Amino acid sequence: MCQICEWGGGVFLYNNSAYYPAQDNRRTYGGALDIKRIDYEKGKFTVEIVKHIESPNKRYPLGLHTLNEYNGIVVIDVKGYRYGKIGELMARLVTILRKVL
Hints:
Layout: E1 5-7, E2 12-14, E3 17-24, E4 32-41, E5 44-53, E6 63-70, E7 73-79, H1 84-100
Antiparallel strand pairs: 1-3, 2-3, 3-4, 4-5, 6-7
């Protein structure tokens, strides 16, 4: 079991293979997603990361939390600062204070 990842959405099929998104929590909780392919051969399941995705959106730079699809509609949950530049400034200030204190 992966110690740094959690399910980031449901299993989906693509080109006759099963995949699922898993949260990559190394940097922060829900900081990115790894798309993993599930294979089954000779009575054994294997999982392989086929794609690592970080949020490409500058308004929501903190993470890519979940990805789900239902009836052809894809929903992606990203994370960002509620108050943009003020939130980013406060986060940097907290980081500096943690180093000093």
